[in-house]
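Weekly sync, protein design subgroup
Attendees: M.S., D.O., the rotation student, P.L. (late)

Item 1: inverse folding check
M.S. brought a backbone from last month's batch and wanted to see whether the design step gives back something sensible before we order anything. D.O. pointed out we never logged the input encoding, so this time it goes straight into the notes. Structure tokens as presented (315 positions):
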């Protein structure tokens, strides 16, 4: 596949310290007095922005080795399956990614497995699923994970029956749906369904400054129903290539069942997890934001207190 000129640019990845804190708040001025008074002690430094990954403080947990910040200008591509330009991972480093959520039962189980190992991933949400289960997607965000989009309905954008307008609708409505569910803009991170990358949409995402994610290690968890096979699939490839972006699906029950063992084997094998964050959130398009508000408008339920709605008149 040919990548549009200018899609990948130098310096798309930058590294950021995980222990930095915001500057201290300025100390308030002392009230006028007859004699000078010592200045009040400065307020404690504010905590770092954003939620932290839930952690059980276990010294044996997999954890996060480093955090990288991505400048998505021009639509950089990640994952050697399709994009070769940005090789930023060191040997034995992995990025955990999960597609097709959020989904009841399975996504919460994935979140628990990650929390138990104090580690994190990127969740590429399907727009429709985000509108079905916004509360689960908010749990993903609250746990400190990165959230991107995976189209509105998981349509294969390489399908020749789709017009260019319909393909763009799938992308844009997907991001707006995730934004609606989170009540905040997600990261400008996108993964094509079935890893099918039509050149025109690659160019479009570049114009929209949205990073594209392929993978290095595919778990093929959509082809099996056994958790042990998911583990085998991952490490058969990972132990060969030595690093990379791992593709999994939090939509799949057997993936959630396999994840604790995957994380345990990553730790035992000396692998380290890298967290990827965007320099800035995605800029969704107003027309799609408005469309989502109309489509997801549900009947409201009275919020009056019980005693103003229900009264005992006979007992």
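Designed sequence read out in the meeting:
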């Amino acid at each position: 596949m040919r990548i549009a000129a200018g899609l990948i640019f130098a310096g798309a990845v930058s590294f950021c310290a995980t222990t930095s804190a915001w500057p201290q708040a300025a100390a308030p001025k002392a009230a006028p007095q007859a004699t000078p008074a010592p200045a009040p002690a400065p307020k404690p430094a504010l905590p770092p922005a954003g939620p932290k990954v839930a952690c059980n403080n276990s010294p044996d947990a997999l954890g996060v080795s480093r955090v990288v910040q991505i400048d998505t200008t021009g639509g950089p591509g990640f994952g050697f399956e399709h994009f070769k330009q940005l090789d930023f991972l060191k040997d034995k480093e992995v990025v955990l990614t999960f597609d097709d959520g959020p989904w009841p039962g399975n996504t919460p189980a994935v979140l628990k497995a990650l929390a138990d190992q104090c580690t994190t991933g990127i969740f590429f949400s399907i727009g429709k699923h985000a509108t079905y289960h916004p509360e689960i997607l908010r749990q993903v965000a609250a746990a400190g994970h990165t959230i991107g989009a995976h189209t509105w309905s998981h349509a294969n954008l390489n399908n020749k029956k789709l017009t260019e307008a319909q393909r763009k609708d799938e992308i844009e409505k997907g991001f707006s749906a995730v934004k609606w569910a989170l009540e905040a803009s997600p990261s400008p991170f996108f993964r094509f369904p079935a890893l099918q990358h039509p050149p025109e949409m690659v160019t479009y995402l570049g114009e929209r400054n949205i990073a594209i994610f392929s993978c290095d290690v595919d778990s093929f968890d959509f082809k099996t129903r056994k958790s042990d096979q998911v583990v085998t699939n991952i490490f058969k490839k990972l132990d060969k290539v030595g690093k990379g972006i791992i593709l999994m699906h939090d939509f799949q029950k057997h993936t959630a069942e396999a994840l604790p063992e995957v994380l345990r084997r990553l730790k035992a094998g000396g692998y380290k997890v890298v967290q990827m964050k965007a320099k800035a959130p995605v800029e969704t398009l107003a027309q799609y934001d408005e469309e989502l508000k109309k489509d997801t408008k549900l009947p409201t339920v009275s919020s009056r207190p019980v005693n103003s709605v229900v009264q005992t008149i006979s007992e």
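Discussion: The CA atoms of residues 40 and 70 lie 40 Å apart. The mean pLDDT is 84.
Action: P.L. to compare against the previous round before Friday.
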